Every structure is written in structure tokens, then in C-alpha cells.
Amino acid sequence: MMSKRKPAAGRTWPTHLALIILSFVTLAPFVWMLLTSFKTFEESVRMPPAILPEAWQLENYRIVLGKFPFHLFYLNTFTMMGMTVLGQLIVCSMAGYAFARLNFPAKEFLFTLCLALLMVPGQIFLVPHYDIMVKLRLSDTITALWLPKIFSAFGTFMLRQFFQGLPRSLDEAAMIDGSGYFGIYARILLPLVKPALVSLAILTALASFKDLMWPLIVNNAMDKMTLSAGLAMLIGEHTTIYPQVMAGSALAIWPMIVLFLVFQKHFIEGIALTGIK
Amino acid sequence: MRIRHDKRNRRGETLAGYAMIAPLFIGLAVFYIFAFGQNIYDSLTNKSSFGVPDFVGLANYVKLFKAPYFYQSLQNTLMYVLICVPLVVTFSVLAAVLLNTGIRGTGVYRTLAFLPAVTLPAAIALMWKWLLNYEFGLINAGLNALGISSSVAWLSDPKVVLFAVSMVFVWGGVSYQVIVLLAGLQGISRSYYEAARIDGAGSLKQFRYITLPLLSPSIFFVMVTSIINVFQIFDIIYLIIPQYSSGTSASRSLATYFFEEAFMKFQKGYGAAIAVALFVLILLVTLAQLWFQKRWVHYDE
After folding, report:
1. ipTM, 2 decimals?
2. Are B120 and A210 inside 8 Å of each other by CB?
3. Cβ of A275 under 8 Å from any chain B Cβ?
4. What torsion, rounded to 10 degrees, do the Cα atoms A88, A93, A96, A102 define?
5. A182·B238 Cβ contact <8 A
6. Helices A242-262 and A13-37, axial angle in degrees (round to 10)
7. Pick the CATH number of B63-296 from 3.40.50.620, 1.20.1560.10, 1.10.3720.10, 1.10.760.10
8. Residue A126 falls in which region: left (phi positive, over 0), alpha (psi -120 to 50) or beta
9. For B234-250, how does the pLDDT look when each residue is reduced to its tens digit (9 = 90+)?
10. CB of B189 within 8 Å of any CB in chain A?
């Protein structure tokens, strides 16, 4: 499909040049982060700066891993992501199926209510969310990180669209075979919307991974922090040792980059899906 | 017989429907609908971290409309929108068109271009905080070496901070939108381009008369999501600009203002009022978007 569009030979260099500039601008900050993370503090503040570290040393990584419980940051972040994804897939796929396939009183009203929530910015819920978490004695827990996030209007809306795209004859055939509504949902339709579930899982995981404000608000104990909030701790008000900060940043970003490189196709499909109505 | 059967069926369907939306709506009721009302109520109290809050009527809103910080953060937020949105849209369209040419090495270029989309915004902020460092940052070193200018205080000069934050936002924000736009581009039928080429239209003409109009739904989507994202800009500012520094008020957005008041000074009632203001603004943007969509966007059948 791609090869059909090959531009006429000899005219490709402007495109290459533009793409190389684009790649350089994208990549350079990452490269500088990595290079700095291997430098000593003295090297990092030398002017004019040397590009490569004199000796590639892992001291900064050792210090950062010693100062901050990164193993817990990873564990907390992935628990939060996993629970958010799992919760959303269950809650939203059930509701999405019901809205797409079943008739019940006030359905339109309830669905419109769901859509209306999509327009409300998250900040308006944060003060109450924090108070609810304190009341439930859940502040400074991992549960607090994901519990409010599994009830997603967006996920419900998205999955409803996919359920609607499936032929009704599937439901009818299953009904004749004696399946109940839950059986139709769980055994017949859910396997067929798997691509949509994968996309939603990726979008949700990514959003959960990136979120900073909520983890920062609800959890103050160091051992209950996520990578995102942990990085905020790294940059203290006192003097900052950038090689250590860069080492910490590198430690925080690699898991998602590796996941992306492995599941690139799914990531792209998932994100692309948000733009298609 | 038949009627009874239908009735029972319908009751079964209703029960199944309610049962299956119940988990969602219990959650929405507690965490969104109740929370929304609670926030409105909180905004009418002097709630802080301690003690029982008193009802104060509209006092928080009166304070808000008198606070110079509110106006400045509103103005800053609008500036972020005005600077970031056109840049994000322009660069993401350009990058997507380049990545859609199918040139050799596209796979590699594409993977690289998507990296910021999967990078923690907190890490993006720290990376750039280091690049933009006044004394030892690579960017000032580069400017000095090229003799273009003396060092710029990117993160503390009140005249510059807003642009520095915007630059970082754009760098981090383009990537995600490129993915959305590439999907839009791949949906455009090749036959349009072939017909145009036969008619002798060059690349620029093809871009102007085929790509741009047929991509307009995706471009519009990118624009709307960028506007809504920029209205809530927080992470980068919070991590890149030190609190109580000379760059703080010149870079403060409504979302950082909200966070500072509600969760750093623990003026939760006042913070709740800021959140309401942000909600009203985004509501207006959403309504404007629905209105404009009918006029601007060309949907290909």
C-alpha cells in the first residue's frame, strides 16, 4: 500500500531532509537526557559542554535508585494502570453493550448524561475526589489511584459504537440457542469487539501512566507514589543535580517506550481511533 | 400467550439493561455526579483542610473576580491556547503529510516521531528544564556558541517563560496528534491524487485542494482536543517553573492556579470556585466547537 505512493526518484531528498530535521528535533532531548545521566556533576556543568561523557558511569543511577524507591514506583504505576484498564474494560463494556443492544426506560437520558460528563474538565472533581478518598480512608493507597478512574464515560461511548457495528443476527441466533443477555454479551459479542477493547486498554493505560495531578494530590507517602509523582519529588527546591534528575527521568520513561516499541501497531490503532467518530 | 411472553421478555430486558449499566452508574453517581454537585457546594464555602467549613455564599467568586492572579492566569491560559494550538496543528499536519509520503525509512521516522506521545509529561518537563537551564543548558550554550545571543533566562524571565513553556508543550503535544492525522490521511482515497496528477496539479496544489479539505475532520478534531488540553495545561508548568520564582506568575495557568490554591494553600473552597470557572470556559469552547463544526468541516461521503 505504501510502496504505491513512492514519489518520483530524485525528488525525495527534500522530504528526507525534512524528516531528518523532524527526527533530530524529536530525538535530541532524549539523547541529551541519556548522555547527561552518565556524566558526573562536574562534567554536566562544564561550559561549553562536552557532548559525550568522559567515562560512562552509572553512579547517578545508583544514587537515584538508592534515594528513591523506584521498585515501588514501578509496582504502584503498573498496579494502577492494570487496575484502571481492567476496571474500565469490565464496567464500560457491560454498559456499552446495554446501551447498544438493550431497551430499558430512561436509556436515552442516561446515555446523554454520560455524554455530558465527557465535556466536564477533570479539575472540577478533584477536591471532592480527595475528600471522598479521605472519608473512605483510602488516601495514601494504591486503590485511590485507580478507583475513580474506572468509571469512564469515554470508554462506554467508544465501546457502545463498536457493539452497534456488530450485526443483530448474532444476538438473535444466540437467543434462539437459549442464551440470556449476559451470555450474549460475554460469549458472543465481547470476543468480537476485542480490537476495540485492546485500543481502549492502550488509551487508558497511557492516560493513567501520564497523569500527574491526581497521584500528586491523593498520595503523599513516598512508598505510594507513581513514576509521574515520583519524578516531581526528584526536582527538589534545593540545588538540583541534573545528572541524577536525568537518570531518574530515564528510569521513569523506559517501560512505556519499550511497550510502545513492542506493541506499536496497537498503540497507533488505539490513538488513531480517538480521532475517528 | 404471546403478549404475556413479550411482556416478560421486556421486563427481563429492562432488568438486564439496568443490571449491566449499574456498575458504571453507581461509580458515575458517586465520583462524577455527586462530586460535581459537591464541588459547586464547596465553592460556596470557606472549606480548608481543617475544621467545619462555613457557607459563605458567593464570596469565593467575588474574591475570584477581584483577584489579579485570576486574571493573569486566565490571560496566560488564553495566551497558551493562542500560541500552542496553531503550532501544534501546523506541525502535526506537516509531520503527518511527510510521514505519509511512503518514502524509504518511513517506519523508522514514524517510530521516532511517536516517541514523545508515549513519554511521561513529567519527564518531558524535566528534560527541557535541563535543556533550558540558564547557566548550563544546552540551548543557551548553543546560542552562545553561534553568537546569536547572550543567554536567555527561559524559565525565570517573566517576558519569556510563557513562550518557553509553550515550546515544550508543542514539542510534547505534536506527536500524539500526528498519529491521529496519519490515520485521517490514510483514509483519503488515492484516486483523488491520481486524478489530480493527470490534470497536472503539483504537490502544493494537491495539498491545498485535496489533502486539506479531506483531512479537515481530523484537523478539526486535533484542534479541538488541543484547545481543551491547553486549557488544562498543568504538568509542564508545575515541574518546569519553580514555585515562588520570578517566572511563576507569568506562566501560571488556570489549572496550576487551581492546584496551588486547593492543594498547596489548602483553600479548597476558593479552589473549587476556580474549577467552576475553568468548567464554564471549557463548556463555552465545546459549544463554540459544535457551532463551528457545522460550518467548517468537510465530511467526505
Report:
1. 0.91
2. yes
3. yes
4. -140
5. no
6. 130
7. 1.10.3720.10
8. alpha
9. 999 999 998 888 999 99
10. no
